[in-house]
């Protein structure tokens, strides 16, 4: 096995890796140096200032990089390495680094204890994340699962499946094709153009907007709820909002609605003013939607209740 070591003099070293035919493993340690381990010496490798660049290597790589910290909030004062990887043919496993950008990865991605931001693009298999301190941006990822939270904002575009436990900031999701499941969002949550997907955002601290999806489970928001979605047959879904709720039903809606509001309730056929409840049936009413809000409820869309 070949080992090559490079000294690090700054608090924000960078590693740039491009076109590697193999697996990549990156581990952090308490040394101000970067070690590269490989079966054969890496010819296409150079260091310029605080940046180490690796190009065009065939085989697996293991890197040890500086990750000198005293706790999860020490990102600003510690020594952390940022990693930029593109065109990796197989899997990437990375832990204890600063910012991570991965593009065109042929295998799985495993990220643990990432102290900065994460950007993923073109991940062909599962991306498994455990602890992201900054923002997360993912585009063109087959399946993304995040545990132990994302501290900042999350932006998801064109994913098959996205499952996250906690988002500290805002959530923006576009073109989710199958499943979007998020347990907690500290800010606002927006899911747009997710036709055919089942969406479940269990709790949102701010406003919740869902456009073009199937509501898979109960959702609550501290602010307003704005939903243009269907409820799958034989499902019971609950929507709770501290503010107002606006619900747009598609023309083929097949749901029984029970709405309770502290303010007004309006629908195409009947209205309630000054608080109270309202029951409506769309189609055969084979699904059930319970709506409870502190403000007003507006039921609208192409469907007309009978």
What distance lies between the first and last C-alpha atoms, to the nearest angstrom?
74 Å
User: How much of the sequence is in beta strands?
Assistant: over 45%
Report low-confidence residues grouped into runs of 5 or more: none
Overall morphology: elongated
Could you state the order of secondary-structure elements as H and E? EEEEEEEEEEEEEEEEEEEEEEEEEEEEE
Number of strands: 29
What kind of sheet is the major sheet? 29 strands, mixed
Total count of helical runs of at least 4 residues: 0
Radius of gyration: 24 Å
For the residues shown, what is the average pLDDT?
Answer: 93
Structural class: mainly beta
Helix content: under 10%
Describe the 3D structure.
- The chain has 306 residues and is an all-beta fold.
- It is built from no helices and 29 strands.
- The protein has strands at 2-7, 14-21, 24-29, 33-38, 45-48, 51-58, 61-68, 79-80, 82-88, 92-95, 100-105, 109-114, 118-132, 136-150, 154-167, 171-185, 189-192, 198-204, 208-215, 219-221, 225-230, 236-241, 245-249, 255-261, 265-266, 271-272, 276-282, 287-293, 297-301.
- It has a 29-stranded mixed beta sheet that branches.
- A hairpin with a 4-residue loop joins β25 and β26.
- The termini are far apart.
- The model has no long low-confidence stretch (mean pLDDT 93).
- This is Adhesin domain-containing protein.
- It comes from Reticulibacter mediterranei.
């Amino acid at each position: 096995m070949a080992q090559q070591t490079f000294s690090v003099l700054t608090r924000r070293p960078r590693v740039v890796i491009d076109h590697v035919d193999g697996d990549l493993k990156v581990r952090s340690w308490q040394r101000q140096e970067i070690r590269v381990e490989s079966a054969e010496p890496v010819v296409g490798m150079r260091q310029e200032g605080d940046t180490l660049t690796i190009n065009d290597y065939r085989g697996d790589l293991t890197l040890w990089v500086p990750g000198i910290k005293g706790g999860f909030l020490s990102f600003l004062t510690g020594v952390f390495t940022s990693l930029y990887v593109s065109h990796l043919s197989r899997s990437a496993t990375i832990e204890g680094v600063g910012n991570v950008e991965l593009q065109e990865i042929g295998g799985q991605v495993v990220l643990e204890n990432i102290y900065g931001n994460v950007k993923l693009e073109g991940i062909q298999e599962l991306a498994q994340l455990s602890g992201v301190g900054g923002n997360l941006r993912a585009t063109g990822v087959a399946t993304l699962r995040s545990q132990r939270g994302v501290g900042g904002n999350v932006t998801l575009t064109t994913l098959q499946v996205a499952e996250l436990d906690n988002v500290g900031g805002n959530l923006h999701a576009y073109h989710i094709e199958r499943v979007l499941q998020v347990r907690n969002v500290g800010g606002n949550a927006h899911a747009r153009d997710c036709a055919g997907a089942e969406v479940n955002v269990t709790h949102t601290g701010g406003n919740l907007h869902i456009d073009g999806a199937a509501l898979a489970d109960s959702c609550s928001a501290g602010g307003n709820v704005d939903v243009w979605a269907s409820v799958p047959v034989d499902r019971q879904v609950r929507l709770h909002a501290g503010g107002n709720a606006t619900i747009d039903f598609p023309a083929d809606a097949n749901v029984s609605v029970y709405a309770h509001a502290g303010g007004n309730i309006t629908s195409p056929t009947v209205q309630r003013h000054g608080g109270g409840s309202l029951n409506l049936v769309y189609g055969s009413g084979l699904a059930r939607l319970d709506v409870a809000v502190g403000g007003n409820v507006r039921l609208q869309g192409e469907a007309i209740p009978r």
